[in-house]
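Dear colleague,

Thank you for sharing your sequence with our group. We've completed the structure prediction you requested, and as agreed, I am returning the results in plain text so they can be pasted directly into your records. Please verify that the sequence below matches your submission; if there's any discrepancy, let me know and we will rerun it promptly.
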Amino acid sequence: MIPTFDVEIGYAYEMDRLLTGLTAEDVATGFTDHHEYECLGVPTWDEAAECLDSEAFVLGRAAESGVPDGIEAVLGDLSDSGDGVAYAELNQSLHWNDAGVAGLSIALSAARAVTFYSCSASLERGRHHARYPMVGVVPDADRAELIADLARSAGCGIGQHEGRWYLYAKSVTDMHRLAHLILEQRMAFDAMPVPCWVHGLEAELKGTDGY
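Please find the predicted structure tokens below.
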């Protein structure tokens, strides 16, 4: 099974208070401290689609399992299978983010919104830091309008703190659905002006560890 979390979905945000002025250096090195989250760079839509395929594989097997937190069980089985290469390749396709929120993080990054946090949550207290699935993102105003519409369609909520958005849901299936909706709107996102932080980001990331 895929766990469902007790959270009320709402939409508390102010477009005129979105965080602005981020530079490539800000995005590469981190502009807020969120559990050592690493910048995802400037992934392509093809990379987002690949990530979503890998995530769908995990979620599909989790849904078929008979345990309360099927995602943790599936990942545990894969880790214990002895096929270290396949397990590493899965994590690489998820960009080392949690299955269930990895697809949304990559899709948002491909849409050229800045992600800074992601957590799938868990029924096991203390295993994850979020109490329900959540992805942190800073979109510009144009992207924010479209993301907000898609979030409502997917049943995902939006919270805002110091200009940063927190997308959240009762289940990672809703986050996965939102990621697909973003992917479907890739032409609309590509038609929007490229944010200033995109320019020079890859060069900044080459100077940081782990990229």
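Summary note from our side: The beta strands are 11-12, 114-119, 134-138, 157-161, 164-168.

Kind regards,
the structure core
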